[in-house]
Amino acid sequence: MPNHAPGFATRPDYRVDLLSENRRVKVVFGGETIADSSAALRVEETGHGPVHYLPEKDVRLDLMRPTGHHTRCPYKGEASYWTIEVPAGGGSLRRSENAVWAYPTPYDEVSGLAGYYAFYTTRVDSITLT
Q1: What is the pTM of this model?
Q2: Is the Cβ–Cβ distance between 35 and 58 less than 8 Å?
Q3: Which CATH number characterizes residue 118's domain?
Q4: Residue 39: pLDDT above 90?
Q5: Domain membership flag for residue 4
Q6: Which of 21, 37, 43, 63 supports an S-S bond with 58, CB 3.0-4.6 Å?
Q7: Pick from 113, 125, 98: nearest CA to 19
Q8: DSSP conformation class of 39
Q9: What pLDDT is stored for residue 106 in this prediction?
Q10: CA–CA gap between residue 30 and residue 32 (Å, rounded)
Q11: In sequence order, which residues have a C-beta less than 8 Å from that of residue 106 and are 6 or more positions away?
Q12: Are 20 and 37 spatial neighbours (Cβ–Cβ below 8 Å)?
């Protein structure tokens, strides 16, 4: 069953390009490596800076908790969100709310996003490319 993006119907000139990232992408929060990948995608979208999406196999899902937060993009589909939780000592946790998002069932035009996760640069300690 087709799952076409409604945004492209009204703005066919809008771009959402999924490009292979040649550099290694590493995400750190609370002293823990949350994701580390040499197989990331760089998404270049009209009117936005590039965003790196990392494959599920390279993401520490054990440090993430799904949230009830969802957003909808007319070009990519419905996004689901996760909060990062890492040990902070003394039995406490350091948390970053809704720091991670993904498109579990992206629109057909960007189907390559399925199984990839992105991180807000302002909600993690660092995202480095080497």
Answers
A1: 0.95
A2: yes
A3: 2.170.150.40
A4: yes
A5: no
A6: 37
A7: 113
A8: S
A9: 98
A10: 5
A11: 76, 77, 112, 113, 114
A12: no
| Pairing between β-strand 51-55 and β-strand 116-119 as defined by DSSP bridges | antiparallel
The pLDDT tens digits for 2-28 are 899 999 999 999 999 999 999 999 999
Q: Is residue 86 part of a domain?
A: yes
| Assigned domain for 108 exists | yes
CA 36/CA 114 separation, integer angstroms:
18
The reply to whether 88 falls in a domain is: yes
Domain containing 46 equals: 15-129
Q: Answer yes or no: is pLDDT of 119 > 90.
A: yes
- Please tell me the total count of domains within the chain: 1
Q: Write out the two tokens for 59.
A: 């993401």
3-state secondary structure 42-86: EEEECCCCCEEEEEHHHECHHHEEEEEEEEEECCCEEEEEEEEEE
Examine the pLDDT at 1 and tell me if it is beyond 90: no
Phi–psi pair at 44, nearest 5 degrees: -110, 115
